[in-house]
C-alpha cells in the first residue's frame, strides 16, 4: 500500500458518516460546507404533507389544521431532482483531488415533508417531527461552522427550471442590484470576503461577484458549455429569471460580518436531467474544481501553503487533519 493510499484510507476512517432518518452529515477537513436542502426523497407518514398557507389578518399562516384559502400563501413541494447526487459527486471529486473532505449536510426528507430553506414557521406546520428535522438540519450546519472555527464557504445546492438554462449564483443581491451594479455589501452573503479583500475600496467588490475572482469566473473557465450569472461573461441577469439566494444563504452568509460566506448555486434542468448522468457528473467535477480554486485563491486556506499535495503534506506533517 502506497503512502498516499494509506493516508487516504486513514483520512476516510477518521471521518464518520452520520445518518439519521432526516439528515445525512459528513464532517470534513476543508473550510467548505456543501448543503443540499431540497434533494431528499423520504416521505415518512409521521410527517404531514406541506400545503398552502391560510391568509389570516393580512398574513400567511402555516398550520396543520388550517384550510388553505388563498394563492397568496403558496408553497413549493417539488424536490430539486438530482441535487443530492450532484452534492455527493462534488464531495467525492474534492476528496479524490485533495484527500480531504468538505463538510456535507443533506436533508433526506422530500420537500413535500420539509423544506430546509425556509423559515421554520413556514415549513413545519407546527408538527413536532418536522420541527425536530428542521432543527437537526440547521444544528448540523452550525456544527460544521463551529468545527471549522475560521473563515469558511457555505454552498447551498439547488435546482431550477428557468428557460435561460444558466447556472445562477445567489449572493442575496437582487436582479436589479446586479443590473445596476450597486452591489450593497451590507446585503451581500460574501461580505466577509469583500471586506477582507477590498477594505474600503467599494469598486473592488464586484471582482468577487462577477469579476475575475468570482465563483462564476472559475466555473465558466472550466467549460464553454456553461453560462453562469453573475460572471465576467454575464455580469447580471438583465430581464432573465434569477434566484438571488434564500433562507440558508441569508442565515449563514456574512452580510452581518460573520466569518462564513455563503453562495446559492442553482443548477439548470438540462444539466441535472442528462439522460445518462454524464452531464451532471461532469458539472459536479467542474463545480468541485471551481470551489477548490475559489478557496485557494481567495484566502480561505489562511497562511497555509495548501497546494493539495498529499505526498508533500504527509512528509512534512503526517498529523495534519485540516487544510487551513
Automatic annotation (TrEMBL):
Superkingdom classification of source: Eukaryota
Alphabetical keyword list: Signal
Xref: SUPFAM superfamilies: Zn-dependent exopeptidases (SSF53187)
Signal peptide residues on this chain, from the entry's feature table: 1-20
Record protein name field: N-formylglutamate amidohydrolase
